[in-house]
Amino acid sequence: MIPQKIICVDIGSTYTKGAVFNPTEDRFKVGARAVVPTTVNYLPDGFYKVLEALIPGFGSEHAYDKTDFPVFFSSSAKGGLKIAVVGLVPEMSLNIARLAAFSAGAKVCAAFPYRLGKSNIAQIESLAPDILLFCGGTDGGNERYALENSKMLAASKFSGTIIYAGNNFVADEVANTLSDKEIVVTENVMPDFGKLNIEPVREAIRKVFLEKIISGKGLNEIVKKFEALPVPTPLAVFNLAKAIGENVKNWNNFAIIDMGGATTDFYSYTDAFHYDGETVMKGIVEPLLKRTVEGDLGMRVSAESACETGTDYFASLGFDENKLNDLKTYSLKISESPEYLPENETEKMFDRTLAGACIYHSLLRHAGTIEEVFTIKGRIWAQTGKDLRRINKIIGTGGYLAAMGRNNEKIIIPSEPSTPSEKIPLLPQKFTYHA
Q1: Would you call 196 exposed, middle or buried from its count of C-beta atoms within 10 A (0-12, 13-18, 19+)?
Q2: Which residue numbers in the chain have pLDDT < 50?
Protein backbone atom coordinates (compact mmCIF):
# COMPACT_ATOMS: atom_id res chain seq x y z
CA MET A 1 0.00 0.00 0.00
CA ILE A 2 1.37 3.43 -0.96
CA PRO A 3 1.30 5.88 1.99
CA GLN A 4 -0.62 9.12 1.48
CA LYS A 5 2.39 11.20 2.45
CA ILE A 6 6.05 10.83 3.35
CA ILE A 7 8.00 13.30 5.48
CA CYS A 8 11.70 13.90 4.77
CA VAL A 9 13.86 16.13 6.98
CA ASP A 10 17.52 17.12 6.69
CA ILE A 11 19.22 18.48 9.80
CA GLY A 12 22.07 20.58 8.49
CA SER A 13 24.76 22.53 10.29
CA THR A 14 22.96 25.83 9.57
CA TYR A 15 19.38 25.01 8.55
CA THR A 16 16.91 22.20 9.14
CA LYS A 17 14.86 21.58 5.99
CA GLY A 18 11.81 19.41 5.44
CA ALA A 19 9.31 18.46 2.77
CA VAL A 20 6.08 16.53 2.44
CA PHE A 21 5.99 14.16 -0.52
CA ASN A 22 2.73 12.80 -1.88
CA PRO A 23 3.49 9.52 -3.67
CA THR A 24 1.60 8.30 -6.71
CA GLU A 25 2.14 5.14 -8.74
CA ASP A 26 5.16 6.49 -10.62
CA ARG A 27 6.37 9.66 -8.91
CA PHE A 28 6.58 11.82 -5.79
CA LYS A 29 4.91 15.23 -5.73
CA VAL A 30 6.14 17.88 -3.31
CA GLY A 31 3.24 18.96 -1.14
CA ALA A 32 4.93 21.47 1.17
CA ARG A 33 8.37 22.69 2.23
CA ALA A 34 9.72 24.22 5.45
CA VAL A 35 13.06 25.65 6.56
CA VAL A 36 14.12 26.77 10.05
CA PRO A 37 17.52 27.53 11.60
CA THR A 38 19.08 24.42 13.10
CA THR A 39 18.83 24.45 16.90
CA VAL A 40 22.41 23.38 17.48
CA ASN A 41 22.17 22.89 21.24
CA TYR A 42 19.19 20.53 21.00
CA LEU A 43 18.45 19.31 17.47
CA PRO A 44 14.88 17.99 18.05
CA ASP A 45 13.62 21.55 18.66
CA GLY A 46 14.33 22.56 15.06
CA PHE A 47 13.16 19.16 13.82
CA TYR A 48 9.73 19.60 15.46
CA LYS A 49 9.43 23.19 14.19
CA VAL A 50 9.80 21.84 10.66
CA LEU A 51 7.25 19.08 11.30
CA GLU A 52 4.75 21.57 12.71
CA ALA A 53 5.18 23.79 9.64
CA LEU A 54 4.60 20.81 7.37
CA ILE A 55 1.78 19.28 9.41
CA PRO A 56 0.02 21.99 11.44
CA GLY A 57 -0.67 20.87 14.99
CA PHE A 58 2.04 18.21 15.06
CA GLY A 59 4.43 19.10 17.89
CA SER A 60 6.89 17.29 20.11
CA GLU A 61 4.09 16.11 22.44
CA HIS A 62 2.02 14.66 19.59
CA ALA A 63 1.74 10.88 19.56
CA TYR A 64 3.22 9.33 16.42
CA ASP A 65 1.97 6.33 14.50
CA LYS A 66 4.24 5.41 11.60
CA THR A 67 1.24 4.07 9.67
CA ASP A 68 0.04 7.71 9.39
CA PHE A 69 3.16 8.82 7.53
CA PRO A 70 6.72 7.49 7.41
CA VAL A 71 9.48 9.88 8.51
CA PHE A 72 12.98 9.77 7.04
CA PHE A 73 15.79 12.08 8.07
CA SER A 74 19.39 12.84 7.27
CA SER A 75 21.93 14.84 9.20
CA SER A 76 25.18 16.69 8.80
CA ALA A 77 24.62 18.67 11.98
CA LYS A 78 28.06 17.98 13.42
CA GLY A 79 29.67 19.27 10.23
CA GLY A 80 29.74 15.84 8.66
CA LEU A 81 31.90 12.83 9.38
CA LYS A 82 35.60 13.70 9.19
CA ILE A 83 37.98 10.93 8.09
CA ALA A 84 41.75 10.70 7.70
CA VAL A 85 43.04 7.95 5.41
CA VAL A 86 46.26 5.95 5.78
CA GLY A 87 47.20 3.77 2.81
CA LEU A 88 50.15 2.45 0.87
CA VAL A 89 50.49 3.41 -2.81
CA PRO A 90 48.75 6.75 -3.61
CA GLU A 91 47.30 5.54 -6.95
CA MET A 92 46.04 2.22 -5.56
CA SER A 93 45.00 1.38 -1.97
CA LEU A 94 45.07 5.01 -0.82
CA ASN A 95 42.87 6.11 -3.73
CA ILE A 96 40.43 3.24 -3.16
CA ALA A 97 40.22 4.12 0.55
CA ARG A 98 39.42 7.73 -0.33
CA LEU A 99 36.68 6.57 -2.73
CA ALA A 100 35.24 4.34 0.00
CA ALA A 101 35.19 7.19 2.51
CA PHE A 102 33.61 9.62 0.04
CA SER A 103 30.96 7.08 -0.99
CA ALA A 104 30.01 6.60 2.68
CA GLY A 105 29.25 10.31 2.94
CA ALA A 106 32.43 11.33 4.76
CA LYS A 107 34.75 14.28 4.35
CA VAL A 108 38.39 13.24 3.88
CA CYS A 109 40.51 15.75 5.80
CA ALA A 110 43.93 14.18 5.10
CA ALA A 111 45.55 11.22 3.36
CA PHE A 112 48.91 9.64 4.16
CA PRO A 113 50.74 7.15 1.90
CA TYR A 114 53.42 4.64 2.88
CA ARG A 115 55.00 4.89 6.36
CA LEU A 116 53.63 7.26 8.99
CA GLY A 117 56.23 9.63 10.43
CA LYS A 118 56.12 11.71 13.59
CA SER A 119 54.93 14.76 11.65
CA ASN A 120 52.07 12.70 10.15
CA ILE A 121 51.01 11.53 13.61
CA ALA A 122 51.12 15.11 14.89
CA GLN A 123 48.89 16.18 11.99
CA ILE A 124 46.41 13.38 12.71
CA GLU A 125 46.28 14.36 16.38
CA SER A 126 45.75 18.02 15.45
CA LEU A 127 43.00 17.29 12.91
CA ALA A 128 41.24 14.92 15.35
CA PRO A 129 39.15 13.12 12.69
CA ASP A 130 36.16 11.04 13.78
CA ILE A 131 37.59 8.02 11.94
CA LEU A 132 41.02 6.97 10.74
CA LEU A 133 40.63 4.59 7.79
CA PHE A 134 43.74 2.38 7.90
CA CYS A 135 44.50 0.48 4.67
CA GLY A 136 47.43 -0.86 2.69
CA GLY A 137 48.63 -4.08 1.12
CA THR A 138 46.70 -6.72 -0.78
CA ASP A 139 45.74 -9.90 1.11
CA GLY A 140 49.01 -11.78 1.42
CA GLY A 141 50.97 -8.80 0.08
CA ASN A 142 52.98 -6.11 1.83
CA GLU A 143 52.86 -6.51 5.62
CA ARG A 144 55.61 -4.15 6.74
CA TYR A 145 53.77 -0.84 6.41
CA ALA A 146 50.61 -2.07 8.16
CA LEU A 147 52.61 -3.39 11.11
CA GLU A 148 54.86 -0.33 11.40
CA ASN A 149 51.98 2.12 11.04
CA SER A 150 49.90 0.27 13.64
CA LYS A 151 52.72 0.75 16.17
CA MET A 152 52.90 4.47 15.38
CA LEU A 153 49.13 4.82 15.81
CA ALA A 154 49.17 2.81 19.05
CA ALA A 155 51.67 5.25 20.54
CA SER A 156 49.70 8.30 19.38
CA LYS A 157 47.14 10.41 21.23
CA PHE A 158 44.50 9.85 18.52
CA SER A 159 41.21 9.06 20.28
CA GLY A 160 38.82 8.49 17.38
CA THR A 161 37.78 5.21 15.78
CA ILE A 162 40.31 3.29 13.67
CA ILE A 163 38.84 1.15 10.89
CA TYR A 164 41.40 -1.36 9.62
CA ALA A 165 40.71 -2.43 6.01
CA GLY A 166 44.14 -3.55 4.84
CA ASN A 167 46.05 -6.82 4.34
CA ASN A 168 43.95 -9.36 6.22
CA PHE A 169 46.94 -11.66 6.78
CA VAL A 170 48.09 -9.27 9.54
CA ALA A 171 44.65 -8.10 10.72
CA ASP A 172 44.89 -9.95 14.05
CA GLU A 173 48.35 -8.55 14.78
CA VAL A 174 47.23 -5.02 13.88
CA ALA A 175 44.13 -5.34 16.08
CA ASN A 176 46.26 -6.61 18.97
CA THR A 177 48.72 -3.72 18.60
CA LEU A 178 45.82 -1.25 18.61
CA SER A 179 43.85 -2.97 21.38
CA ASP A 180 43.93 0.16 23.56
CA LYS A 181 42.27 2.15 20.76
CA GLU A 182 38.72 2.00 19.44
CA ILE A 183 39.41 -0.44 16.58
CA VAL A 184 37.08 -1.95 13.98
CA VAL A 185 38.43 -4.61 11.60
CA THR A 186 36.71 -5.18 8.26
CA GLU A 187 37.52 -6.70 4.87
CA ASN A 188 40.43 -5.42 2.81
CA VAL A 189 39.43 -2.47 0.64
CA MET A 190 41.78 -3.85 -2.06
CA PRO A 191 42.10 -7.65 -1.55
CA ASP A 192 43.77 -8.15 -4.95
CA PHE A 193 45.80 -5.69 -7.00
CA GLY A 194 43.45 -3.11 -8.54
CA LYS A 195 40.28 -4.82 -7.22
CA LEU A 196 37.83 -2.60 -5.35
CA ASN A 197 36.02 -3.94 -2.27
CA ILE A 198 34.32 -0.81 -0.98
CA GLU A 199 31.02 -2.04 0.48
CA PRO A 200 32.34 -3.53 3.79
CA VAL A 201 34.20 -0.30 4.53
CA ARG A 202 31.12 1.79 3.71
CA GLU A 203 29.08 -0.29 6.16
CA ALA A 204 31.71 0.05 8.90
CA ILE A 205 31.80 3.84 8.41
CA ARG A 206 27.99 3.99 8.49
CA LYS A 207 27.87 2.15 11.83
CA VAL A 208 30.44 4.48 13.37
CA PHE A 209 28.48 7.48 12.07
CA LEU A 210 25.30 6.22 13.73
CA GLU A 211 27.08 5.62 17.04
CA LYS A 212 28.70 9.04 17.06
CA ILE A 213 25.89 11.23 15.75
CA ILE A 214 22.94 9.65 17.57
CA SER A 215 24.65 10.05 20.93
CA GLY A 216 24.78 13.84 20.65
CA LYS A 217 22.36 16.75 20.97
CA GLY A 218 19.11 14.81 21.22
CA LEU A 219 19.07 12.84 17.97
CA ASN A 220 18.40 9.65 19.94
CA GLU A 221 15.00 11.12 20.87
CA ILE A 222 14.06 11.46 17.18
CA VAL A 223 15.32 7.94 16.46
CA LYS A 224 13.27 6.47 19.31
CA LYS A 225 10.04 8.30 18.50
CA PHE A 226 10.03 7.89 14.72
CA GLU A 227 11.80 4.51 14.54
CA ALA A 228 14.12 5.91 11.86
CA LEU A 229 17.90 6.05 11.81
CA PRO A 230 19.63 9.15 10.41
CA VAL A 231 21.60 8.92 7.19
CA PRO A 232 24.63 11.18 6.58
CA THR A 233 23.37 13.87 4.21
CA PRO A 234 25.99 13.16 1.51
CA LEU A 235 25.17 9.45 1.69
CA ALA A 236 21.48 10.28 1.15
CA VAL A 237 22.43 12.12 -2.05
CA PHE A 238 24.72 9.23 -3.03
CA ASN A 239 21.84 6.77 -2.58
CA LEU A 240 19.57 9.07 -4.61
CA ALA A 241 22.09 9.11 -7.48
CA LYS A 242 22.27 5.32 -7.35
CA ALA A 243 18.46 5.03 -7.43
CA ILE A 244 18.19 7.41 -10.39
CA GLY A 245 20.84 5.56 -12.38
CA GLU A 246 19.30 2.16 -11.71
CA ASN A 247 15.62 3.04 -12.13
CA VAL A 248 15.09 6.08 -14.38
CA LYS A 249 15.10 5.52 -18.12
CA ASN A 250 17.83 7.34 -20.10
CA TRP A 251 19.59 8.48 -16.93
CA ASN A 252 22.72 6.34 -17.16
CA ASN A 253 25.25 9.16 -17.74
CA PHE A 254 24.64 12.04 -15.34
CA ALA A 255 26.14 14.06 -12.50
CA ILE A 256 24.84 15.79 -9.38
CA ILE A 257 26.44 18.92 -7.95
CA ASP A 258 25.48 19.66 -4.33
CA MET A 259 26.86 23.08 -3.48
CA GLY A 260 26.62 24.50 0.01
CA GLY A 261 28.12 27.34 1.95
CA ALA A 262 31.21 25.38 3.00
CA THR A 263 31.69 22.55 0.49
CA THR A 264 30.82 21.42 -3.01
CA ASP A 265 30.03 17.73 -3.48
CA PHE A 266 30.23 16.21 -6.96
CA TYR A 267 28.60 12.87 -7.86
CA SER A 268 29.01 11.14 -11.22
CA TYR A 269 27.09 8.14 -12.55
CA THR A 270 28.85 6.92 -15.70
CA ASP A 271 31.30 4.21 -16.72
CA ALA A 272 34.80 5.33 -15.81
CA PHE A 273 36.72 3.81 -18.74
CA HIS A 274 35.80 3.13 -22.36
CA TYR A 275 38.31 0.92 -24.14
CA ASP A 276 38.96 2.17 -27.69
CA GLY A 277 42.11 0.26 -28.61
CA GLU A 278 44.34 3.32 -28.18
CA THR A 279 43.86 4.16 -24.50
CA VAL A 280 45.21 2.24 -21.50
CA MET A 281 44.18 2.67 -17.88
CA LYS A 282 46.76 3.87 -15.38
CA GLY A 283 45.81 2.93 -11.82
CA ILE A 284 42.39 1.64 -10.78
CA VAL A 285 39.18 1.77 -12.82
CA GLU A 286 36.96 3.97 -10.68
CA PRO A 287 33.39 2.92 -9.82
CA LEU A 288 30.26 3.63 -11.85
CA LEU A 289 29.04 5.94 -9.07
CA LYS A 290 31.65 8.23 -7.55
CA ARG A 291 31.54 11.09 -5.05
CA THR A 292 34.13 13.72 -4.25
CA VAL A 293 33.88 16.66 -1.85
CA GLU A 294 35.82 19.91 -2.00
CA GLY A 295 36.23 21.65 1.35
CA ASP A 296 37.64 24.88 -0.12
CA LEU A 297 34.78 25.48 -2.57
CA GLY A 298 31.62 26.94 -1.10
CA MET A 299 29.28 29.91 -1.43
CA ARG A 300 29.69 31.43 2.04
CA VAL A 301 31.99 29.92 4.69
CA SER A 302 34.48 28.90 1.98
CA ALA A 303 33.86 31.86 -0.35
CA GLU A 304 37.27 33.44 0.27
CA SER A 305 39.16 30.23 -0.57
CA ALA A 306 36.86 29.63 -3.57
CA CYS A 307 37.78 33.10 -4.82
CA GLU A 308 41.49 32.30 -4.51
CA THR A 309 41.05 28.96 -6.29
CA GLY A 310 38.94 30.37 -9.12
CA THR A 311 41.30 33.00 -10.54
CA ASP A 312 41.73 31.12 -13.84
CA TYR A 313 37.94 30.79 -14.15
CA PHE A 314 37.45 34.51 -13.51
CA ALA A 315 40.10 35.32 -16.13
CA SER A 316 38.18 33.22 -18.67
CA LEU A 317 35.17 35.48 -18.00
CA GLY A 318 37.24 38.58 -18.76
CA PHE A 319 37.62 39.89 -15.20
CA ASP A 320 40.17 42.71 -15.01
CA GLU A 321 42.17 43.54 -11.86
CA ASN A 322 39.61 46.02 -10.52
CA LYS A 323 36.70 43.63 -10.95
CA LEU A 324 38.70 40.81 -9.38
CA ASN A 325 39.54 42.99 -6.35
CA ASP A 326 35.86 43.85 -5.93
CA LEU A 327 35.02 40.14 -6.04
CA LYS A 328 37.69 39.41 -3.40
CA THR A 329 36.23 42.11 -1.14
CA TYR A 330 32.74 40.64 -1.54
CA SER A 331 34.02 37.10 -0.91
CA LEU A 332 35.67 38.19 2.33
CA LYS A 333 32.44 39.89 3.46
CA ILE A 334 30.22 36.87 2.88
CA SER A 335 32.72 34.42 4.38
CA GLU A 336 32.68 36.47 7.58
CA SER A 337 28.86 36.85 7.45
CA PRO A 338 27.50 33.61 5.91
CA GLU A 339 23.89 34.73 6.39
CA TYR A 340 24.39 37.72 4.05
CA LEU A 341 22.30 37.85 0.85
CA PRO A 342 23.18 39.97 -2.23
CA GLU A 343 21.51 43.38 -2.26
CA ASN A 344 22.13 44.56 -5.83
CA GLU A 345 22.82 43.27 -9.34
CA THR A 346 26.60 43.44 -8.93
CA GLU A 347 26.51 41.28 -5.81
CA LYS A 348 24.15 38.84 -7.52
CA MET A 349 26.65 38.62 -10.38
CA PHE A 350 29.46 37.95 -7.88
CA ASP A 351 27.43 35.12 -6.31
CA ARG A 352 26.82 33.64 -9.75
CA THR A 353 30.53 33.93 -10.57
CA LEU A 354 31.58 32.23 -7.32
CA ALA A 355 29.10 29.44 -8.04
CA GLY A 356 30.67 28.98 -11.46
CA ALA A 357 34.14 28.72 -9.93
CA CYS A 358 32.92 26.13 -7.40
CA ILE A 359 31.28 24.04 -10.12
CA TYR A 360 34.20 24.31 -12.54
CA HIS A 361 36.93 23.39 -10.08
CA SER A 362 34.95 20.62 -8.37
CA LEU A 363 34.36 19.20 -11.86
CA LEU A 364 38.06 19.47 -12.78
CA ARG A 365 39.10 17.68 -9.59
CA HIS A 366 36.48 14.96 -10.00
CA ALA A 367 37.33 14.23 -13.63
CA GLY A 368 40.14 12.01 -14.83
CA THR A 369 42.75 12.95 -17.42
CA ILE A 370 44.44 11.48 -20.47
CA GLU A 371 47.96 12.16 -21.66
CA GLU A 372 50.04 11.15 -24.64
CA VAL A 373 52.67 8.52 -23.85
CA PHE A 374 55.30 7.11 -26.20
CA THR A 375 56.31 3.45 -25.85
CA ILE A 376 58.49 1.07 -27.87
CA LYS A 377 55.30 0.13 -29.74
CA GLY A 378 54.46 3.72 -30.57
CA ARG A 379 52.12 6.37 -29.21
CA ILE A 380 49.31 5.51 -26.78
CA TRP A 381 46.98 7.47 -24.53
CA ALA A 382 47.14 6.85 -20.77
CA GLN A 383 44.02 7.58 -18.71
CA THR A 384 44.03 8.30 -14.99
CA GLY A 385 40.77 8.65 -13.09
CA LYS A 386 37.24 8.84 -14.46
CA ASP A 387 36.06 9.73 -17.96
CA LEU A 388 33.13 12.19 -17.74
CA ARG A 389 32.81 12.94 -21.46
CA ARG A 390 29.60 10.89 -21.86
CA ILE A 391 27.73 12.73 -19.11
CA ASN A 392 24.73 14.40 -20.76
CA LYS A 393 22.71 15.59 -17.75
CA ILE A 394 23.75 17.51 -14.63
CA ILE A 395 21.51 18.10 -11.61
CA GLY A 396 22.21 21.16 -9.47
CA THR A 397 21.13 21.07 -5.84
CA GLY A 398 21.91 22.92 -2.65
CA GLY A 399 20.33 26.27 -1.83
CA TYR A 400 21.97 28.46 -4.45
CA LEU A 401 21.92 26.06 -7.42
CA ALA A 402 18.30 25.08 -6.79
CA ALA A 403 17.21 28.73 -6.60
CA MET A 404 19.26 29.60 -9.68
CA GLY A 405 17.47 26.92 -11.67
CA ARG A 406 14.06 28.17 -10.57
CA ASN A 407 15.03 31.71 -11.63
CA ASN A 408 16.28 30.49 -15.04
CA GLU A 409 19.76 31.90 -14.37
CA LYS A 410 22.76 30.38 -16.15
CA ILE A 411 26.40 29.77 -15.27
CA ILE A 412 29.10 29.56 -17.93
CA ILE A 413 31.19 26.39 -17.54
CA PRO A 414 34.15 25.92 -19.93
CA SER A 415 34.41 22.45 -21.52
CA GLU A 416 38.20 22.59 -21.33
CA PRO A 417 40.67 24.16 -18.87
CA SER A 418 41.81 27.72 -19.43
CA THR A 419 45.43 26.75 -18.69
CA PRO A 420 46.99 24.43 -21.32
CA SER A 421 48.44 21.19 -19.96
CA GLU A 422 49.89 17.94 -21.25
CA LYS A 423 47.17 16.17 -19.28
CA ILE A 424 43.74 16.66 -20.85
CA PRO A 425 40.80 16.59 -18.40
CA LEU A 426 37.93 14.30 -19.41
CA LEU A 427 35.09 16.80 -18.93
CA PRO A 428 31.44 16.60 -20.07
CA GLN A 429 31.06 17.96 -23.61
CA LYS A 430 27.31 18.55 -23.95
CA PHE A 431 24.74 18.34 -21.18
CA THR A 432 21.35 19.61 -20.07
CA TYR A 433 21.05 21.23 -16.64
CA HIS A 434 18.31 20.35 -14.14
CA ALA A 435 17.64 22.10 -10.81
Answers
A1: middle
A2: 1
